[in-house]
Amino acid sequence: MTHVEPMDPHEAFAELGRIRLADVDLDALLDTIAQLAKRTIPGASEVSVTLLHGNKPQTVAFTGALALDEKQYERGYGPCLQAAESISSLIVPDTGTEQRWPGWAETAAQAGAHSSLSVGLPVHEHVTGALNIYATTPDAFDDDAIAIAQTFAGFAAVGLANAHLYETQATLAGHMQKAMENRAVIEQAKGIIMGERRCTPEQAFAILSKMSQDSNRKVRDVASAMVEHARRLQP
């Protein structure tokens, strides 16, 4: 683990606020959160971000070794998991004497993390997380450090929630665009069938559906192939 001089919290909060979601993806935002937290929170040696979707935890950003989070996932308990589940702050003053999470504390101490602080992140209705701060010395986080970490986590949670919403909307827009494209090609194929067989739109769609079933292909793929074939026959 490496130590860096703390960054002014107000400067860090301002930098988080300047991030344009249209310019960065979720991975970049998470990495920025971890790096800024490491520079901002007094006593921080390494930082990671845990996201918990249902019962599946994942470390999505980190500034150093992952073993401290992963060991918690393997055991199914630990401060970062509890902080994520309860959206609370959990401090481990000294991993050498910690008794709440047997096994993990010893592993953390052996890895060089002698104290830790995990702050819950409310990201979305079905997604929570935790900002995990590790230090190389016991009792590294005083009341001021905890307050800064909690404030930082609040800013980070808003950014993550907005990013989640932004990506969800972008995905929805993409699906809607795809659906519109599919609908357009199906309508074109129906027009071709109606012209060839002198049938109604309903009958044309029934014919297209039957072709889809017989060939074990999606209606959209059958329609696309039909439209492409018609284009090739044009003089």
How would you characterize the overall build of this protein?
This protein has 235 residues and is of the alpha+beta class. The protein folds into 2 domains: 9-170, 2-Layer Sandwich (Beta-Lactamase); 174-233, Winged helix-like DNA-binding domain superfamily/Winged helix DNA-binding domain (Arc Repressor Mutant, subunit A, Orthogonal Bundle). It is 57% helix and 16% strand. The chain has helices spanning 9-18, 26-40, 67-75, 79-86, 104-111, 143-197, 201-215, 219-233; strands at 46-53, 56-62, 89-92, 115-124, 127-135. The protein has a 5-stranded antiparallel β-sheet, with helices on both faces. A hairpin with a 2-residue loop joins strand 4 (115-124) and strand 5 (127-135). The longest helix is centred in the last third of the chain and has 55 residues, at 143-197. The radius of gyration is 27 Å and the shape is elongated.
